[in-house]
């Protein structure tokens, strides 16, 4: 429970601080572009942050301190699908296709791992498959952002 509380509380602060630092050091406000160094630093930070999350998840699963409540995995998956559907439908109703694609790409690794991993969420295969799929999703998201920023730059 402390692990999830730390992710929820400290994760956004770490992401905000790092991306603010990247924008201050590597962004040009005149051209509204990010240097290639900025992309590299954000990619490296995202990779390390994801590695920290996955590594600490391995530690928490192998050496749990106290477990207060743990619903069945089917309950978690059902709640996740409902929330994903609400988020994607809400984004599409507001005509924000990028956020709908983003939400789906970030949820897809769990769906893929659920389909292809035998042991369920507690197995190491599940974590490895979901981590690799999330890494691929992050690469796709960065590619979409870079392509759209180049198109916007060409239009101007």
UniProtKB/TrEMBL annotation:
The chain crosses the membrane at residues 6-27, 39-60, 72-90, 97-116, 128-147. Keywords: Membrane, Transmembrane, Transmembrane helix. This is Uncharacterized protein. It comes from Jeotgalicoccus aerolatus.
């Amino acid at each position: 429970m402390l692990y999830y509380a730390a992710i929820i509380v400290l994760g956004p602060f770490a992401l905000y601080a790092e991306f603010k630092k990247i924008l201050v050091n590597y962004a040009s406000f005149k051209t509204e572009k990010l240097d290639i160094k900025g992309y590299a630093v954000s990619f490296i930070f995202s990779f390390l942050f994801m590695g920290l999350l996955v590594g600490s998840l391995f530690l928490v699963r192998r050496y749990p301190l106290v477990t207060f409540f743990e619903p069945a995995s089917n309950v978690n998956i059902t709640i996740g699908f409902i929330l994903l559907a609400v988020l994607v439908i809400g984004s599409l109703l507001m005509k924000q296709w990028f956020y709908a694609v983003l939400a789906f790409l970030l949820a897809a690794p769990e769906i893929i791992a659920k389909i292809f991993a035998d042991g369920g969420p507690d197995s190491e295969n599940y974590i490895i498959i979901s981590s690799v799929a999330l890494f691929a999703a992050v690469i796709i998201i960065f590619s979409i952002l870079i392509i759209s920023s180049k198109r916007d730059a060409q239009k101007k």
